[in-house]
Queue: 4 jobs
Job 1
Amino acid sequence: MKKYFLIIQATWAEYMAYRLSFVLRRVRMVIQLLATYFLWRAIFSGSQQLFGYTQAAMLTYIMLASLVRPIVMSMSSLDLGGMINDGTLSNFLVRPISIFKFFASRDVADKVLNLVFAVGEVTIVFLLLRPPLFLQQDGVTLVVSFIALGMGVVLFFLANMIISLLGFWTPDVWALRFLSFILTEFFSGLLFPLDILPQGLFAISRLSPFAYFLYFPLKIYTGGLAYADMFSGLMIAALWIVGLSFVYIRLWRRGIAVYQAEGK
Amino acid sequence: LNFAALLAYRINFINSVLSSIGWGAFSLYSVVVLTTRITSAYGWSRNEILLFNGIYGAIMGAYHMFISVNMGRFSRIIHFGDLDGILIKPIDSQFSVSLWLVDFTMILRILIATSFTVWILSILQISFSLSQIAMFVAFTICAWIVLYSVWFLVLTNTIWHTNLSNLVRLLYAFESMGRFPKEMSQQLGGFLFFVVLPITLIINTPTRALLNKVVWQDVAILLLLAVALGFAARKYWLYALRHYASASS
């Protein structure tokens, strides 16, 4: 395990070496939060309740989405596709480390650092704007929302790794990633809770893995789900985790078989 | 050549086309969903807000098609010293780094946004005079100049800080502030509003021309910004080139 802790430390050191890059990334997050916040304030300007949400519940959802986004959607596994394409992966294959755990460690490092900064940013935005917020006080609901969040983290990581593995068969995974990015932006509940979509689209989105990245844990937190719905949601997320794990393992084995270490 | 490069990898081409359609459609559909329960916000009707988004899609789509696709490779060509090859060619370096690539997949996004705009205009039942159309075109050109100059000024800094590859992503984040009426950005207050003002005017000024709601103060600021930022971007690039270290050569 020690080597993976060292990878976490090395990732932090790498981020600190490129401090300005990291700061710019955080600035981008704050801008996106402000844009979404003011959009929702405009939407709620004439009413206290819309789409079945109170203003407090909706603004809580939006603020939490910004806070949780960097935890769930860290992008450190992006590099794997490029490593396959330029042959850098070979350097890792000859080392006594698991590539999955290597990227998982980098992901943990990324999430911890982003979480620390996101808490600070959201606190500052909260103190400046003083939005009405909703505090969940039911212990069971809180625990389930944290479990759902953990599942969202695993799901997103697996999905990202799978897309990166496609680098074994295509010289550029950027377009595929952008497509998944679009679907994630729309169907993860980052911009709005998915249950404000038309019923048909909402039903489809609930069956996709995207809904379990952000929408599902946040919906549980804001108190919009009965225990039975929470349970069925957790089951669907668990099925996706099992399914994507299976796909990941199969793709990795097949990919390594066709890997030609091009470029190195 | 750009089109041939796009078609060289078929799967990537199909993905790019799907991505372009998806981005165009989803970003517009998001706003349609978000505004279903409101009739107005910040003094603008729902359809007018949708019009802002349609025009935003078309103007930004064209910008991404010709300009930002080149800006995306800005830090890379400087970091790896590829700028050397551009500097020795008998062609203006700023022109070359800004307009070398064309992203043809953006055509679809522009088409979606334009169709959406025409649909909203038909709902709003607006009839245009020739002067309105002329103003829309003129303000759109100014908007592109402002947008290009802001991006170019920011990205020129990669001459000194070559590893700032995510500057482009930061600029994309600011861009989204332009898709809504200026009154929304004004909520940011003080310094922050001043920072996003050029981005806000980019979509607001041409859209207001179509809606016959031109604010001449905004027009003056947009024109001033277009001239001043365009001039500053040129001067700053020439100044930065004197400090170019030709990294990998």
Note: Residues 119 and 125 of chain B are 10 Å apart (CA to CA).
Job 2
Amino acid sequence: VLRLIGRRLLLMIPTLILASLLIFALAEVLPGDVGRSILGPYATQEQVDLLNQKLGADAPLYERYLTWAGNFVTGDWGDSLLLEVPVMPTVMEALANSLLLAGFALVLIVPTSIVVGVFAGLRRDTALDRTITVSTLSMTVIPEFVSGVVLLYVFAVWLKWLPVSAMPPEGSSFIDRLYYLILPAIPLMFLELGYIARMARVGTVQVMGMPYIRTAVLKGVPQRRVIFGHMLRNAMVPTVTVIGSQVGWLIGGLVVIEWLFVYPGIGQLMVQAAQTHDIPLLEASVLMVAVIYMISNLIADIVVALLSPRIRMGG
Amino acid sequence: MTNGEFRREYAYHLVDEVKKGRMTRRQMLVRASVFGLSVTAAGQLLAACGGSDEEPAGEASGLPEPVMGGTIKLIGPAPITDPDPVTIYDQGGIVLVYQFLEYLIDLDNNNGLKPKLAESWTPSETGDVWTFNLRQGVTFNDGSPFEAEDVVTSIERVLDPANGSGALSQLSGVLSPGGVKAVDQYTVEFTLDKPYVDFPYMVSSGNYNTAILNRKYKGDIVDNPVGTGPFLLKEYKSKQKAVFVKNPTYWGKDAQGRQLPYLDGMEYTMVEDNSAQNLQLQSGAVDVQPQTIFQGAQALFGDPNLRVDIYPSSGIREVAFNMNVDPWKDNKPLRQAVAYCLDREAINKALYDGRSLLGYDTFWEPTVFPGSPPSTARAQDYDMAKQLLSDAGYPDGIDITLTHAKYLENPQYAQLIQEQCKPAGINVKLEQLSYEAYYAGDDADYYGTTPWLNAPMTITEWGSRPAPGIFAAAMLLPDAVWSSSHWNNPEWVSLFDQYQSTADEASRSDVAAKLSSIQQDDTPILIAFYITQLRTQKKNVFGIQGPGSFYCDLSQAFMTA
């Protein structure tokens, strides 16, 4: 397992370099430039050129990349060109917000979907199984901006049970923060529930058909012990992999939810930075999300390795 | 003749115009304000005209007694960058700057001018030198006094191209660097490049980059928010919120002599998404949305807790025919044919629920700018359109391309144009670009490459302007940087020069009528409507002022229990 971690951590370095290069190149081909974003459509081109020159945005691409990369690795992430604030605290604050929302959503999603999926798998092909499968899958296909607006309308505007924004007033306690996150977490649960529950169901069905489970059942092992002692550990392998692959999205891909619930997360930050060609901010945010992606996949792989000796041996 | 004498002379002239029926009373008030006549003086003029005082539009009557204190919560988009008054150009920036900074002159609800940091202003007889007398006893919130030197540095700052101010594009050709001079501590003199009777608009809040800053300003508005406005910027969090508290030493008093502002503070929450803003309003989490977009606002109209106020504004969606290229070049009938395809009322209904004002392809539109010469309505007329199309050399129809950004209601407007042109045989192909792509251009030659100035036919959104001449100067003069039509009609240009320098209202009105009719006939651009402005607030919120787009004056705002 240690070798696996070491090798994967090493692999992250070229991946990150490649990602950072790509971002620079893409920002270059996107229409518009940072000077125009700052000064707006009514400034003259001479004024925009002057500003770009001042910001160093007119230097050749490779030169800008090398300067930026050199500073970045030494911990100098620079200032946002547009917001004129240091990049590192801005990105870290947004990332912390996103991690909290993703973490909270996962705490709701993972146990619920596993319970639902395993339950359906154990009652395979019954009316209950079909009801669970159909209803969770239907939830998955509702886009988050639809379920989000409906939930907001019902619980925040109409019933006024929950706050309409995901950010509590300053100085609120941790519990308060979670209370504000309930509403935005539900659309995420809708999206993920069907997906993860299906994996849990498939795993359960597969493992329950295995000879060793049949043996255990025939031996007269009580059902509870069959499920918790033998089945779950093996049935969870595909589920954990899927969860690992979803964590990155839950952190960096929640643009719509963040927008709708007015939550200053990293998804919104990335979109804004991309729209305005704010490269220092964009690079730092995307790389942080990439790191989270890779780490969450790595953790999922480690968990899988621990669950399943075969994969562990195979490295 | 001294400036004062000239102003008196002009006042008599205005009274004469009204008496002869050549000018409405409202138009007279607007013109009187441009020439720096005080409200009292204007009232005396009205009395001289005979009859009773006309009640200006707005919510002035029937307001409850003001309530002191409380913090009002606003919601709107974040400024694109820091709210630096020198470079702001978007709604977020304009709303925020307006709270803690002030202009020499403010706009009223009729697009007339009212004194703010300037108490009065007068042109020289030739109209190219303007003298402004400043308000005395005003201090910035860092304790330094407001004086002529602050005005000189503020205006010279936007005139310096290195500072990147959008105001420069409005002031170029009117006022050059070095043209602002402090005559004494409280008198400033502007020496213009040419006579310009609408000059006061250029240094009013209508030209929002001309906010008056302290002479020591270094471009660090967020760290050092020094201004003379009713509120002080206490906290600013990029893309999240801005918090303001009452300026305890604000110079302003209400009509009863009470200290302004009434409120203790203001919080502005920055939310980009319009539906998210609307939900916050409906949930009761915020009190005011300074700008409400028609699309998606139906729920707000019906909400019993909210009041949606409608304000006149002159914002337009300019549909320009690029006359540098075919098929629009030298083809007036073709341009007119498109104009006769439009069912302007149906467009107004579809885009704005019928609440905007109709336009007929001219800036001199009396319903928008009171006192403009009457315009000729252009109803949908397919027979006429087909005839014109045939005159234009396309009896069997024509394929044209309309380029627009996926921004605001522009895509819907483009589709309506497409549908309405089809029956006449004009097939419109839509080219939709992202907002960024529409305004993007090659660094080496921005003006020669950017779609919005170079595509054959375009839709471009323009915010409110207080006077027709200001619109026209920005997009219809051949040397206007923002001319998407590249129109060059020598007769119109020379008339426009005359219009800008004519103080005599009768001859000015004659010139305006000619300008208007040439513009409509030649049809360089289509103006199908002038957008009215919506502002949504809770029913207990009163006293917000602010004509045109984006302005939100909270100095006399208050909330009842």
Note: Chain B touches chain A through 43 residues (CB under 8 Å).
Job 3
Amino acid sequence: MIPAKFDYARPSSLDEAVRALADGGEDAKVIAGGQSLLPLLRLRLSFPDLLVDIGRLNELRGVHDEGAALWIGALTTHDQVLHDPLIAEHCGLLAEAAATVADPAVRHRATLGGSLSHADPAADLPAVAAALDATITARGPAGDREIAAGDFFVDYLTTSLAPGEILTGFRVPKLGADWGYRYEKFHRTAQAWAIVGVAALARRSNGHVAEARIGLTNMGTVPVRARAAEQAAAGAEASVSALRSAAALADAEAQPPSDLHGAPDYRRHLARVLTGRALAAASRV
Amino acid sequence: MTTETDAQAPAKEFGRARPRKEDARLVTGQTTWTDNLTLPGLLHIAFVRSPFAHARITSVDVSAARGMPGVIAAFSGADFADEQGSLPCAWPVTPDIVIPAHPPMATEEVRYVGEAVACVVARDRYAAADAVSAVDVGYEPLPPVLDIRTALDEGSPKVHEAGNKSFEWVFQNGDLDAAFRDAPVVIERNYRQQRLIPSAMEPRAVVCSCVGGEFTLWSATQIPHVLRVMLALVTGVPEQNIRVIAPDVGGGFGSKLQVTAEEVLAMLIARKLGRPVKWTESRSEGNMTVHHGRDQWQRIRVAAERDGRVRGLSVDLLADMGAYLMLVTPGVPLLGAFMFPAIYKMDAYSFRCTGVFTTKMPTDAYRGAGRPEATFAIERTMDELANELGMDPLEVRQRNWITHAEFPYTTIAGLTYDSGNYEAATARAKELFGYDQLRQEQAARRASGDPVQLGIGVSTFTEMCGLAPSRVLGSLAYGAGGWENASVRMLPTGKVEVVTGSSAHGQGHETAWSQIVADRLGVPFEDIRVLHGDTQVSPKGMDTYGSRSLTVGGVAVLSACDKVIAKAKVIASALLEAPPEEVEFEAGTFRARGGAGTTKTIQEIALATFAAHDLPDGVEPSLDSDATYDPDNFSFPHGTHLCATEIDTETGMVTIRSYVAVDDVGTVVNPLIVDGQVHGGIAQGIAQALYEEAVYDEDGNLLTTTMADYLLPSAADLPHFTTDRTQTPATTNPMGVKGVGEAGTIASTPAVVNAIIDALRQFGVRDVPMPCTPERVWRAIQAGRDSGTQAQNGAAR
């Protein structure tokens, strides 16, 4: 298929981009790497009148060390995430998850900002952002604002970005060396979306898990934080059996979809099994 | 490893792993794919397709589309009604077969989602795509027919007025009743061959121009020659006024062995508008409307002795034809009919296939066409028999297979296998696989209750290919022959042009044919050019499918070389001043026997022939030759494939840990090409076992229209393949070659599923329907555990 007709703007500054997007109204969309939007255009599932290409806004590229947190620009590609030393040191979970996305060609074009703002619950990075307690930074006609990941994902393919607002990046609190992580992605082929994904972080202390955070991919219309399992894991012995019991609650907050790749009960089962494994790995059991 | 060598002593190019000469242009895009073509004034077609599986068309209004910017024309089926004819079915398998009319564009009723009901023709693809939504089609929905198991019931809605049964084809040999009467062991199983969507790398595309009543049609097709004949028959355009060109074509796997609605309509539109037109499918459009493959329910019964010896075999198939019969739709299951007995000896065999219409995309040939289905069923069942008897699956096979000493052997299905060595291939495969060690590890994992269980799957397959002796095709009511044509032309400068009727679409013919010619004529490989795929350049041919190119087309090339040599010898004899019977030809050089060292190279003869100054009286100045070869028999490649799977019993995920394929394709012309065919074939067979399935919902909508839902494995999902060969030359052709294009696909699917079941039998699992998705495997384990020992089919969702 080939896309329907649209106008195209390629602004050279962020403010110009915000203006173009705001002027375009509801039928304007931002395009960066195009790895989510172009398929929708080609399948004629999306009919924007205007595409605002932010690909030249270099201020939205790269990883910045802010001391207690990293700020990662929206245009940073998955491939850059994979090879960035700051990310490897302070939030390796992000790199581990980015490595599982699609294939090298896609990872070279696909951007972090695109993955988050597309808000596909089957995509890997939204659940990772949720688990990392990241905040999304955005600029709109009214200026800059920060949105907690938990408030950012509103519904299937829907974020809390206001019309005219552009996702500029996201801020991740640095994790200390006592944190471990694991992204468990369950998919049938390397290029396929996750049937279920589990992003787990655990802080280990004295043979126990002091704190755990779990984000679930494709277990609802938005990325799901498995709070009940997190609470059960907190204080648990760092052992396979204890973490498996905690993981038995992994699907408590989930409302998994049904599609060709998995019925809801199977997805719930997978979420529990994979959470057990991810917690064990994150706790270095 | 070679267990036998060809007595005909392969010369220097035979057996050489030459990189393919065509690859540089193919992989760098320095070539012409159909969609890359552009012609002055070219227009673009977009089709309006039915959103209903079954409906009466009440109205088609294209007037709004005609008014859209850039649109030149828009047509409904009515505009073609008196000229579009009916798409052909060339294989009426029984005298009373029902072959419904199949208009390229529907006029009264649609019978599958995606059937073309109208089209728009515009200056560019974008304008054409935009105008599609402006076409207003009225439908009166009719009930869909989706399940072949109920489609023949009394009360079922009808796909066609004549009903849902197309044909019933039977074959019987031996006394089946006697075989089953008092048989100590009877195994009965039902298997599902899921519907598959052939996924060639290059989508279908067609360009057509019509100038002064003469048509040139470029198409991404496997069959330019057959297509030309069929287009003439369908449209009534005289055959001599149609030229079909298959430029470089990016794969087909059977899907481009077809005469499509789009090709016929492109001709008619080009004629109506007097301008060239192009259509290229999108992947989603292709998933809906490229002919599908497989889709059978198989009931197989085997009677055996306690020692494992098979007494008889009975097979009953329901085959989903889809909505219409396309080029060879009804013949596909028949190609399997002869392969259920496989490599095994038995006293009786009966086969019945019922072809059933549904409101789905028609099925037709897909890599292996009939033989994968048969091989799957028999190889799965041999494993079931082994399990029933407590025997090793290889042991039960060995008890039944035709031994090397017994060849040639006429099977219970009436085929005469010329050659084979199942013992050697199996022994080599076991050795490479580490069969005994893996069995030990399997036992250990079972004993320890490891969450990851190991399974070992066996497939000792053969297949019939090299389609085909024309006489045999005639006896099966196929509408054409199975010969192949080739020409070899010596050019004045000593170079060689080879014209072949085999139409390559990824097979490497240009390389393999050059190797054959280089050896036979004694000319350098680099001096040979192979021409194909254009009915004006290679006017005669039967094209490429059914692993026939080398065993039929390659032999034609060899035969044409021999005719060139015979002609050259007469001229050489004159120049060497020796009688022809005294002139010898070897490695490109003629010399007089016992002569004093005077020689003439074939290149010198070519130049002398061109000059024609000193030719003997009555000798024409030409070294060109033309040869047509009709094979005496099919070729029967075989092999033993062994697969080890690891199954995560907590999630159902299947991982192939190791895969060994020892194939016997007779003499090998180019081992790289053979390996490539085997690798790709195994991947495609694994894909049927684990990944691929076309799914229609209860309304007849195809759900798997994109590659997000129709999963294809990539290299990242596949294991390392350990391949090796035994070489038992075919005795039915002068090169000793056998087909290789489909062998991997045919062999691998049962090897993988057998490995899965082997791992899961301990949980009471007897079958998992394909594709064996993690969810189905997991559910099968749950169901098996729940019910103790009773087998379950898992989640046939």
Note: The two ends of chain A are 49 Å apart (CA to CA).
Job 4
Amino acid sequence: LKFLVVIIPCVALCAACVPYEAARLPEAGRFEALMRRDLSAYEQRLASERQVGQADGWTSVGYAWIALASCTPVEAHAVAPDAAVEARAVYATLKLEQVRRQRLLVMRGAGLVELSITGTMFERLDDEGFFVRAPSDKRDEWRVVWPHGEEAWADELPAALKVETRCAAYYREEMKRGADEARRQKDDGIVQWRPVVDEAQAAAGPPKPGSLAWLQGEELRLVEEALGLLAQSAQGPGVEALTWRLMFHRATMVWRMALVERQIAGTGALVLGLGERQRMYLEAACGWMAPLGAREVAGGGWGVGVEVSARAKAALYHGMCEEAAGRLSEARRAYDAARGLGLEGADQDVADYAALRVLTRLGEWEEAARFEERLPAPGSALYSAAVYRVGVALRRTGQQDRLLALSLRAFRDKAYRPDPFMRALYLQTLRQLVAYPFTERTVEVIEDLGPRDRIFERVEEYARVALDMGEPENARAAARWLLSKHWQSSYAPRYYAILALAAFLDDDVADFEVQAREIVRRDAQVEEAVGALRSPGFFAGADAELARLLRQMLPVMAEWGEGPGAEARRQRWLKVIVEMAQRFVRETPETLARPSLVELYRLASAMLEVEQARAYPERVGQLGPGPLVLGTVRVEDRDLEAFEPDVASVEAPLMWSLTLVPQDGVGVEAWPMFWAEAEQGEEEAR
Amino acid sequence: MAWAGEARAEEVSAAEARPTIQDRFAPKAGLVYGQVLGMLHVRDDYYDTWGVGGEVGYFFVESLGVDVRVVSIQSSLAAEAIDLKERIGLTPDARPQDLWVLAGVRWAPGYGKLLMFGRWVQHLDPQLVAHGGVARADTGWFPMAHVAFSTMLHFKWGIKANIDLGASFQWEDRARGRVFSAGFAPSLGVGWGTTF
């Protein structure tokens, strides 16, 4: 019994001995610590994977994530070529993010952008408090920490270490490098911000690694690499959203390069005076944006991971590309898609204006007129162009009252004189007004079209437009109103000229002669006060007005046609012009308008029938053809393309994240692009 | 605290030299255990004394626990005392004891492991133990104390073994009055425990 009492416990103890085995990885998911943003614990996990021989491509991805979050080289943790394609894809996007951050910092240092990382995940990622970097102070009682030594046991795992960040120093270094590069280029007088090796650079070799040109090229290359790998990996909302973002990032990056190119070249509007390089960038950007925009046109259908605002921007850019290529119907659909998705503030104004512009170019006047309710704020750079285009649409659709209302509202907010679009709208409005009799009501409307102290100028413009539009009665009424109201007599010749032209259009020779005489009438008392010496200068304006009047009449007469009645009328008026010019030049030899009057006088004489005595001196001995006056040229709308507002420089949003955050429990296709709660907080902050 | 013993130590590079961690093989926080034990009591009293008993204990936290120990003592005159008794009729002043009842604390400040034969690992806790209680002899009950350096060995399935190297301190009533005595009281216990 005693023997058994001793033996049994001994056997039990031997059986219960603990075998020496290698440590096993903790049961918690391999990305659990990363999801908790505990870098220290995550690094410990990765070190454990290596120690127990279970490291794979995702271990390298994990180390690359830590490197990115600590501003140390991601390349130090390259994924093996035979690793899972998903791991290689995520690793490529991490390298891309590293290059993107570096480029943004260099650009900021060089002064090419106002802000560096704003709008990207680095705003949060590089914040010192975003990750837990130090091991927990709490000592778990159930865990033993062995101090590090020269040897280790296989049943132990690496302890957690503090993961240091060197982002502050990295930011300083990269921004300084950008500033240095900018200074050097300025000193050398060479601008080498371009990502593609040009002829000058080709001679000097490829861009220097780390230079902005190199970084841009590297970024595009990495986007290409990541897209290729993602195409081979499992598909799902996460991968689809990342693919979308990468494509959008690539296109907008090159689009911005085109804008920088414009800044460098100073060529003005984006679509005008395109340089070869700028055209190349735009073509590339449009090509890359096309699949994104076309899908929006077709109804979208993207997963939840793509921001609606970015999708709307893609449609907007696609519309601009289609419009520039002359595919106006496609552009219209793209703009409609962008507007349907919903944009905010200035972006909405740009989309609205772009849609309005393409509608007017398509001649869809009914649709364009509806934009009256969606005009941008008067302070917007798009306002005048939008108002003008809506005004044209209202006129084309016969909505005269609404055009008038629109004009009155617009001119209250914005002066028409310095702005070509507002000036064109002003002309449209006057053309509209002259269709109605000139009354006090007309004067009130004209007064509201601009500053009160320029009312006479606008009424005169009204009168001239009335003449142009074949409304001599209204022109006459306006001129008489001006003569009765304007207190400066020096303006009277201009108004008499309008009356004379009105008489001419009414074929009233007697009235014409009366009004024309009034233009150049010399008041005896004035002449005496001015004196003979100063007289030519004093009456120069009036005399020039007569010359201008006669010059305006000749082309109008040419438009009367070739019938016998027209010819008789033309000859009658030519005779009036000749006699008037001849008489004035004879009676007033000192006039400063003499050269132009003589020229007109001779021109009109040459057009007289040969039977007329006055025609003889101009025809005798002439071998060449006589003068020919064809008529007037009416320009319906001024060509305003050169003044088109710059909608192409609409700011494209920077993509917040271009990579994936590994997560346990779901496949790579469903991984998020950033920590959900952090991203949500960022959205709210924005 | 670790003994590499015969461990097949892996050399690690200086760059990767870092502290390591290991989950305790048998965490003690919340541990309730019981064990049977055998004990010797050696002192200069002319008796051969050994005991068999039991102990139950509870660890509040990893490093501190309490226990109660009851040991049935078997004392018999040593050979030289029998010889004296037979020759001159004298018996020792001390009286044979038959029971210890002790309660005390266990403080476990460390952790260790031994690699055995390159195949097994013996996890253990070095502990300091202090007991107070009473002992019973044929003259009645008297107070005693017991302190020990203890090693708690951990095996699979919750099996534990305790090796105590203890000292006893007693104030017993003898014919010449109350006498202080000290002795060496090593014990070996085997038992089972589980955590709650």
Note: The radius of gyration of chain A is 40 Å.
